[in-house]
Each structure stands twice: as structure tokens, then as C-alpha cells.
Specification:
Blueprint: H1 33-40, E1 45-54, E2 60-76, E3 79-86, E4 89-93, E5 110-114, E6 117-120, H2 126-133, H3 153-167, H4 176-184, E7 243-249, E8 284-288, E9 304-308, E10 315-316
Parallel strand pairs: 7-10
Antiparallel strand pairs: 1-2, 2-3, 3-6, 4-5, 7-8, 8-9
Length: about 325
Amino acid sequence: MSELQPSNTDAILGGQNPVPIDAAVLGGVPGTKQKLAHEFGTIHELSTFETVTVNKSGEITSRTNKQAFYYTEKLGNGIMLDMVYISAGSFIMGSSDKDKNSLAREKPQHLVSVPAFHMGKYPITQEQYQAIMGSNPSYIKGDGKLPVESVIWDNVQVFCEKLSQQTQKKYRLPSESQWEYACRAGTTTPFHYGETITTDIANFDGTFSALDISTKIYRSKTTIVGSFPANHFGLCDMHGNVWEWCEDCWHENYQGAPVDGNAWNNDCWHETYQESFHWNDRRVYVVRGGGCHDIPNNCKSAFRNGLVASTPLTTGFRVVS
């Protein structure tokens, strides 16, 4: 067995194979509410949702009902935050040389083992951000359930600190490996939906000329979270809508990257980095997932980019605990 090949008990088996019950949504630990409550000190609910798979032309080839455990934080005024249980497992991080659109920044591929954690079902919304921070920096407004955007990295840290204080649980940004593990949710295809995405199942720039699909919509704005099907873990909006900050400092590739699911948060200072709105800030952090203005390739599970901490573009985030 290759050192990059996960075992049968790991969460990732690849392709469109079904995820084993002991390793994915209900996996890692026995899938019971009592056990999860013991492990994490909170009571979980069970949700049922539909996932879809598409072929290379973007046609939906299958629809599958899945289940996931989650708990809900009450943020006040009826505003809730759903946190989905993500089981422990191993996966191959990065992109393969077989992918013609792969980049050096997504290599070398490497096996990562990720402990169990919880992740926000959606990117943090404007009403959730407002409830914790008392403000809304978003450029695109109109509905409180739109994802918050134009958030700089330092303000995300303040949000996590305040949320942790209010709930008495530790909240933070996901590590980059947690993010990709959660996004893939048992797949090795470029997108958790399959070989491609369409504007029927994700929010991105569908007018991109190289995209060989029937729908070529460009909404040019964010969409309400949960408008599109979830992945196999029950997470929504992992492809497109808003870029999502990670905890990790930016590195040009995966040479020396952690393999235990932790953030790679050394060497954040880049002297020559030019994409800063504040020219004295050279701290560069990872963003993932692509946004509503991006081409499909930027929305892939493996695609990664780096932004200066003070860059308020279409950047949002989701939290883990």
C-alpha cells in the first residue's frame, strides 16, 4: 500500500465510493447522540439532507439522502449558529499531477490525519456577525442570511474571541487541512459535487469561457447561505459565494506542512507581498473556496490562495470548535 493510500477505516475512500458508516458523518466514534454528547459536552441533533453528484457536463447523475449530527448555539434575538459534527479520518490533501489545472501551490499531495471537530454548516452570516460584533462590514447587503464579507483577518479573530466568551466554548478559524478535509467530505474529485460545478449548484462566475456547461449565469453578488445542496458532511457553500479565511499563514506549497490537522501558522510575514490595502501589513493568510466573482478553478476543493490580513475583499469565514 502506498504511503499516500488511506486505509479502509479512514474517512476518505475516494471518487464516488460511499463513505463508510464508521468513518464519516456518523464515524470516528459510534454515531449516537449519547456518545457525541459525552465526547464534546453538548447535545446533538440529527439532520437529514440531500446531496447531488454531477458528471463532467454538469448534469446531476444522482441524488442521495444523508444524515449528520449537529448542535446549535443561540446567539440572541432568535439567531442561531449550527455546528456540524465532522468525524475523524485521513485524506490526501492537495491536487494530483493528473489534474491539468493543478498548481504548484497545491502540491505535493500528502496524507493528513484529522481529529474529529465541529464546523459551521454555513459561512458566518451578516446577522450572526452583527449579533456578536454589533456591526456589519459587508458590501453586499439586503438579507441577514447573506454571508458576511469584506471581513479582515484580525476582525475574524475578535469575532472568535467574543463568540467563545459568550458561549463558553472555544471557537476559531479552521486550519487549512480541516477546511479541505471538510470540503471534500469523502471525495477526490475537483469538487465535492464531482468533476465540475454549475451555477445551479454553486455561486460563482458561470460565464467563464472555458466552462463547458449549459448554465452560464453570473449573479455578481453573494447568495443566501444554504441556497445550494450540501456536501456529504452536511456543509453548504464550500464552493463559491465567499472566500473563507483559514488559521494558517500562507506558504507557497506544502513542503513541510503539518500532517495532523493543525494550522501551519509560522512565517506569516512576507516582505515583498504587494496585495495589501495597508502597506505596512505583510501578514499573509490562507483563503479557501473561491467567491461569487471567481472562475470555477478557484472554487475547487484543493485550490488555495493567500491574502494580506488587512485585505477586505469578498472574504468571509466559518468557525470550528
